[in-house]
């Protein structure tokens, strides 16, 4: 019996890929980049830079955002200044949930699931996102709370301590393998991969459920 569902937020509940791809493409246009790459390609390179940064010594996520954007700008030959760091934080605070997110979460909550976010961000950024989601969550855990970023096991251990349930009674719902699915499974949690693009698994980590969207979670909660 699953009593609590935990969630990666950006990319699972909120359109992270569309948001950051649009932001970086707009930056390329403003920089008058003569070799414009698609937003997807810019996002993937930026995410690779960010992944290396979050595996280093802990820094606030605003600092990670600023440094990863600065490094990408240097690679691409774009100008960069402090206003760019502030702009990406403002952008994230306003990104919108996927169309299925809010109604599916409301159904899951009505069916009795506790809802908890486990996110690689700062608390004040996530607090703005919670306004966009318009669903009451029972709790949330951020990298700022733990002093570490997923895929560190410390993040999932901290979340489980706060939830107070056996790991096998907690379902972690996420779209990302290296940040979420693998570490959650190693923590003993059940896992659900939200495969919105109907892609083959990007890794060998085991998972218990695969859904195209969060309607799968709503139906799972109601069947219980």
Shape: globular
The structural class is: alpha/beta
Arithmetic mean pLDDT? 96
E-strand count: 6
Number of domains: 2
Output the CATH topology of the largest domain: Rossmann fold
CATH superfamily of the largest domain: HAD superfamily/HAD-like
Instruction: State the separation between the terminal residues, measured CA to CA.
Output: 7 Å
Beta-strand content estimate: 5-15%
Query: What proportion of the residues is helical, as a percent range?
Result: 40-55%
Q: What is the H-and-E element order? A: EHHHHHEHEHHEHEEH
Low-confidence sequence ranges: none
CATH class of the largest domain: Alpha Beta
Main pleated-sheet profile: 6 strands, parallel
Report the radius of gyration as a whole number of Å: 17 Å
Number of helices: 10
- Tell me what the CATH architecture of the largest domain is: 3-Layer(aba) Sandwich
Strand order of the largest sheet: 3-2-1-4-5-6
